[in-house]
Amino acid sequence: MSRSSAATAMISVASIDSRSQTIHQQHVLQVTTRGKSLQNITSAIAELVAQSGVVTGLCSLFVQHTSASLIVQENADSDVLRDLETFLATLAPETASYRHSAEGPDDMPAHIRTALTHTSEQIPIVRGQLGLGLWQGIYLWEHRQHGRTREVVVHIMGG
Question: What whole-number distance in Å separates Cα of residue 49 and Cα of residue 155?
């Protein structure tokens, strides 16, 4: 289910290449998840892009975990997100017998779900805003049963 998430920029660095006038900014967002769910982090990313001053460029995202992922997906109908969760739960069930089980029955399925999705996304910056389509949002997908603090590196570059 889509839930908005409070994401906090914890680390931020910025530089400007004086030869090309290219801006580079890097932030680390900390997102507290509520357990297995998709959390909409679009507004937190959009705010960083708006503050960057980049008009034309690229926003690169990377989640620093092996049991959570990032996706760009429909933001209008929450049934889409629920269907995705159901589909991946069928592909990587927690009831299967896995060799890697030391961290609990949800751990290996979470690794499989991450491998089948993405740990990074690249979104163009157009006229100072994320170049997402009308019905697109950026989601952090927590694949574990219990909530955790996840870190997403946001690299903004352009001019």
Answer: 9
* pTM reported for the whole predicted model: 0.90
The candidate with the shortest Cα–Cα distance to 132, out of 21, 29, 49, is 49
DSSP sequence for 77-135:
-HHHHHHHHHHHHHHS-TTS--S--TT-TTHHHHHHHHHHS-SEEEEEEETTEE---TT
The phi and psi torsions of 155 (rounded to 5 degrees) equal: -110, 120
Calpha distance 156→135 (Å, rounded):
22
- Count of beta carbons in the 10 Å neighbourhood of residue 28: 16
DSSP code for 42 = H
10 near 28, Cβ under 8 Å? yes
Q: How far, in Å, CA of 77 to CA of 2, rounded?
A: 9
Cα distance between residue 153 and residue 120, in whole Å: 9
Q: How many CB atoms lie within 10 A of CB 106?
A: 18
Contact yes or no for 101/110 (Cβ under 8 A): no
The length of the chain in residues reads 159
Write out pLDDT tens, residues 106-144: 999 999 999 999 999 999 999 999 999 999 999 999 999
